[in-house]
Write a structure and sequence with these properties.
Chain lengths: ~240, ~240
C-alpha cells in the first residue's frame, strides 16, 4: 500500500517525524503537497482535505496520513499507527504505550520550542512578539529544555536493554524522533546546545547513530530532506540563543 | 485490579480527564496524592515516583497511572490504555485511532488554554506575565478557541452514527473530555462562552448529556470532584475574558 503524507511542503515541522519513520521503514509513500499540481498534488490537494466538506474524520491540522480508506491525524497518533506495521516498535502493549508516552513528551517539547518564537500567536509574525519571545526563550533554555533533556537522558540510562536506545533493544520511532529533536535544537540554539550537549552524552550518541543508519543517511543526503529554515518549528534567531 | 492515579491533589487539571473516565467506568481506583500520608499516600507518594531512582519507565510529569506492574504517563496515553478495558471506545482500530486523534486535539487546546494565563513560563506567577497573558488570551478567544470549537462541532455533525457523540454511536472517553473542556471554558471565560455557545449547539448538548449521566452526576456531586480554582488549567481572570 502506498501511503499519502499530507504536510506543509516547505518545512520539516511536525511532518518530519513522520517522514523519518517512513524513510527508515523503506515504506512506499508520497509527500503529497510537494508533488506537482498537474498530478493532483501540491498545496491544493492538502487544502482540499482541510476544507473539504465530505471527510468523515477531518484532521484539525497537518500532518495527516492517508492509508487506504483511513485518514489519520496528529503526529504521535500517525506514528502509533505506522510503527507496528514496520517493525519500529516492540510487539508487546506495555512497550508500545511506553514508546507512545515518550513520543507525546517529545511532542510537548516541540510545542514549547515553537512557542519560544511564537509565545503570543501563531498568526502573528515573530517580529510582532519579539519581546515576549525573548522572555520565553530564556525560560526554555534555562529551565525547560534542561529538564526535558535530563529526563530523556535518564530514560536511556535506565533502559534495561542498554542505553543505545530509548525503548527496548533495537531502533524505534522514538529514537528517530530524538534524532530530529537534537538536530533541530542544534540548528535553532547552537550556543545553548554547545553548552548542554556535554551533559547528555547518551542522547548525542543516539543522534549520531541514527544519522549514520543507511536509510536515514541516504534520506538526509537526498532532496527529499528539506533544510531547516525560518518557517518551521526550529528557527535560528540568534537573539533567542543569547542566554 | 485497583488502579492508582497519581496527580496533583488540589486541582482538576489534566488529571480530571482520567478521573472522569475512571468514574464513568465505575473502576476501582485510588487518587493517591489525595490520600493520607499515614497510609503511604499524599504528596510524598507522588514525589517519590517523580524523583525515584528506581523507576524504569519514569513519567515526565503527572498524571500517571499505576495498573499492576505498569506505570503509564501522558493523559491521552492513559486514556488509550483504559478505554478499551472499560468499554469507553469502540473495538475496531480505526475508531480507536480516531478517538485518540480527537483526544490529542483536545490536549492541544488544553495546552493553549493553559498558556493563555502562562504564556512566558509555568514557573512564574500570572502577575509576572500579565501583559503577555492579555495579548495571548485575546488571540485565544478571537482566533484559536473558535477554530477548535468549530472543528469539534463539525466532527459531531459529520458523525455517521449521529451527532449525539463525537465517536461512534455510544459514549466514549472523548465525549467525557469534551464535557470537561466545556465546563472549564465556562468557568474561565464566562463572557466569551456566553457569546460562543450559541454557535456550537451540538457540543453544548453533548456537555449537558454527559453531565446528566448517573455516574458522572454522582461524581460531580461528591467530594471527589474538586472545584475549579486559580491553580488549575482553567482559571478565571476577568481581564482575560474581556475581549
Amino acid at each position: 500500500m502506498r501511503y499519502e503524507l499530507y504536510y506543509w511542503p516547505t518545512i520539516q515541522g511536525r511532518g518530519e517525524f513522520i517522514r523519518l519513520a517512513l524513510e527508515e521503514a523503506g515504506a512506499d509513500y508520497v509527500d503529497v503537497a510537494r508533488g506537482p499540481e498537474a498530478d493532483g498534488r501540491g498545496m491544493p490537494a492538502l487544502m482540499r482535505f482541510l476544507e473539504g466538506a465530505g471527510e468523515v474524520h477531518p484532521p484539525f491540522a497537518p500532518p495527516f496520513l492517508r492509508a487506504g480508506e483511513q485518514v489519520i491525524g496528529q503526529t504521535a497518533n500517525i506514528l502509533l499507527f505506522l510503527a507496528p506495521r514496520h517493525g519500529l516498535v516492540p510487539d508487546d502493549e506495555p512497550s508500545r504505550l511506553w514508546a507512545h508516552q515518550l513520543q507525546l513528551t517529545i511532542a510537548d517539547l516541540v510545542d514549547e520550542v515553537h512557542d519560544s518564537h511564537h509565545p503570543i500567536a501563531s498568526s502573528l509574525y515573530y517580529e510582532d512578539q519579539k519581546p515576549e519571545a525573548l522572555r520565553r526563550a530564556a525560560d526554555l533554555l534555562d529551565q525547560r529544555l534542561p529538564k526535558f533533556l535530563r529526563y530523556f537522558e535518564r530514560v536511556a540510562e535506565r533502559n534495561p536493554h542498554g542505553d543505545a536506545h530509548l525503548v527496548g533493544g533495537a531502533l524505534t520511532y522514538v529514537d528517530l524522533s530524538m534524532f530530529q529533536m537534537i538536530a533541530g535544537l542544534r540548528y535553532a540554539f547552537p550556543r545553548a546546545m554547545a553548552r548542554l550537549e556535554t551533559v547528555y552524552p547518551r542522547l548525542i550518541a543516539l543522534h549520531e547513530r541514527v544519522r549514520a543508519r543507511s536509510r536515514i543517511a541516504a534520506y538526509l543526503a537526498s532532496a527529499r530532506r528539506l533544510e531547516f529554515n525560518q518557517q518551521g518549528i526550529f528557527r535560528r534567531y540568534p537573539e533567542l540563543d543569547a542566554y
